[in-house]
Please model this.
Amino acid sequence: MPQRSDAQANRERILDIAEDVFGHGGKSASTEEVARLAGVGIATVFRNFPTKAALLEAVLVRHFNRLQAEAEARLGEQDPGAAFFGFFRHLVAGAATKIALVEALLEAGGFGDSEAAEASHALRRAVGGLLQRAQQAGAVRNDVELPEVYALLVGTSRAAAQAPLDDEVRSRMLAIVFAGLAATGRTKAADFS
Amino acid sequence: MPQRSDAQANRERILDIAEDVFGHGGKSASTEEVARLAGVGIATVFRNFPTKAALLEAVLVRHFNRLQAEAEARLGEQDPGAAFFGFFRHLVAGAATKIALVEALLEAGGFGDSEAAEASHALRRAVGGLLQRAQQAGAVRNDVELPEVYALLVGTSRAAAQAPLDDEVRSRMLAIVFAGLAATGRTKAADFS
Model:
């Protein structure tokens, strides 16, 4: 059915363009601009996504789903520590796009009990899986739990996206966090709590 | 000169109320509301602060100046490690107010080459002083520098304010960062960069 696959291709193309536009500071861009850049009629966009919020939500859901799939693929890697730390680094490096998309969706009035919120929770669970495996392998200390690890992921993502940090400072910032997560010996989290 | 000290007291009172209102989620509050809550006439507010941006800037400058004074006072503490980590924890615990004030000022069109930006830089330099002293005392590893430490301060502040995190998770998040900053022995930042 060529018609159906054309429709699917159009949908993906609209999502690609929307991710690019809204994920790079263009939160006030219009659905019309996305249609123009995607080379499709505005009616095609509206048929797929009746509102800007619906379009943004679809972009975010796809973004979170991809990250979740990447996290789950890393569950199969041989070195659980490298898998966990590598994925942490990957998330923070791409944080600016994700944060821009979330802010655009919030501004368009979305993100309540939405599909995007559910996709975001699924990503969090996948990170939890990587953390658990890294802890079982002794690469991450056993006395840390997902809430604080996720808070660090959110915080370092924010910090990286806000300034924005250059690559070297971002790398050095993560090195401190990773040393804290891996730390063994006399330095215990309890010493500072 | 009683008149002059009355004027000064009014100004401080307006700043107290504005910090309370704008620092706790009321970024869309009006200058009129601040005047009413402070129990002064709107003319008194406008005489001191001609615009909402000017009022918010004055609140932030005072907020940053106080934090800077606290940081500088801690330079005299006996234990340089406790002084540095204690101030880091103090900043993150109060982050929600500071972030709300910054966002309100941004929304009111302020914070370019402003006095608040200068006060924020002065605070950063004071944190740099605490860091240097903690490093000289061996409480913080010597291979970390202010840009990444400040990025962690900004990031953990954001994370604490965003959710917002409960006290225990915030404490555990900071314990990981502090362990990373203090880490000695076989775990080196370079292992993860």
In short: Chain B is about 75% helix and 0% strand. Chain B has a mean pLDDT of 89. The longest helix of chain B spans residues 52-74.
